[in-house]
Amino acid sequence: MYLGTFQHGDWIPIPLLTGTAWPLDSSSVRSIPTLTVIDENSDVVLTGEEIPPTLTTGLHNVERQVTAEFVAGRYVGILRWNDAGAAVNRHTIVTFTVDPGGNSVGAITGLHFYRGQNADFILTMSDSGTVESRKGPSV
């Protein structure tokens, strides 16, 4: 499944439907799917990220921010989970593209102006939780 085209700072929604029931491993314990992301050079960019379940039975979802480790290019995501009812482990594939541009810390969601003794400052907070200070703003 193609997830779309993203830039740095964007969030990629990665849904997974494992079936009509929660997947259970061979010891009847709920199996949590994991995500591995590989770039177009066959290098592993991300591995072992768990995809938590939602309130809907069998539906899992994770949102992953496009950070600095994602350079421009195409990516393949492999979602894997165990299912005791199956002879082999289960998996599905997703793909997405990262285009140049954007900001790896994400969108600015908070802004605060304050006047210091030597200069004025603006504090910004991004949706990734990064706080930055900028000195000497002007209009």
Structural descriptors:
139 residues, mainly beta, Immunoglobulin-like, 2 domains, 55% strand, elongated
Report what the structure shows.
By secondary structure, the chain is mainly beta. It has two domains: 2-102, Immunoglobulin-like; 105-139. The protein is built from no helices and ten strands. The strands form three sheets. A five-stranded mixed sheet has the order 1-7-6-3-4, with no helix packed on it. The chain is 0% helix and 55% strand. A hairpin with a 4-residue loop joins strand 3 and strand 4 (44-50).
CATH topology of the largest domain: Immunoglobulin-like
Strand order of the largest sheet: 1-7-6-3-4
β-sheet strand percentage: over 45%
The residue fraction in helices comes out at: under 10%
What's the count of strands?
10
Overall 3D geometry?
elongated
Low-pLDDT residue spans: none
Quickly count the helices: 0
Secondary structural class:
mainly beta
Round the mean pLDDT to the nearest integer and report it: 86
The domain tally reads 2
Architecture of the largest domain, according to CATH? Sandwich
Largest sheet: 5 strands, mixed
Q: Can you write the helix and strand succession as a string?
A: EEEEEEEEEE
Radius of gyration, CA atoms, in whole angstroms: 20 Å
What is the CATH C-level name of the largest domain? Mainly Beta
